[in-house]
Amino acid sequence: MKLLFIEDSEHLQKYTGKALQREGYALDQAWNGEEGLWLARQNDYDVIILDIMLPKLDGLTVLQKLRAEGRNMHVLMLTARDTLADRITGLRKGADDYLVKPFELEELLARVEALVRRAYGSKSPIITLGDLSLDTMARRVKVNGTPVELAQREYSLLVLLAMQPGRVVSRTEIEQRLYGEEAEHFSNVVDSSICLLRRKIDRPGGPSHIRTRRGMGYVFEPIITPAS
After folding, report:
1. Where in the chain is the domain with CATH 1.10.10.10?
2. Which pLDDT score is estimated for 222?
3. How far apart are CA 43 and CA 46, in angstroms?
């Protein structure tokens, strides 16, 4: 999943940015409102984390411009001003959630996770697709009730596909949302990740949860695997 973090605090950018990347998010970062607005116009993000007090262009103006242009990515506002009027203003201008500084990192991660689920039309942290169960809160995967251990990158890829069952997700979209600049240096990074993921969630000799659509991309198709 692809995030944009717009914040002028070097400490918050470094500390929070590393935590988001450890969670498997592809992260773009901007240090002022003008740069953040430009990035938001150039890319598709699942969630934007947006500070209100920014140089060059404040966060509320950035939000207002994005909404006026019809851009519907979910936005989590950050503010050091904990007043009801500030929260109401942000929500009425199109914010999806609010978090007051200083905040606990775990709360920010939980709020981002909830907004990502909402972006894909899911409110429950438990997603069941055929024989595969995905717990986005605990970050656990089970196939036929058996836990499956996935590396962080494999888990993120599964979430991206499983959140959109039946929809073909192009290689370009996977590269942009999960790998960023890394995909430019390793041309087979998507193919390799798909292969590794299939080995872990598919039954040997059985149908695959992830189908290849030649020339188009990949699609997650729920299946029922007979219990052994």
Report:
1. 126-220
2. 87
3. 10
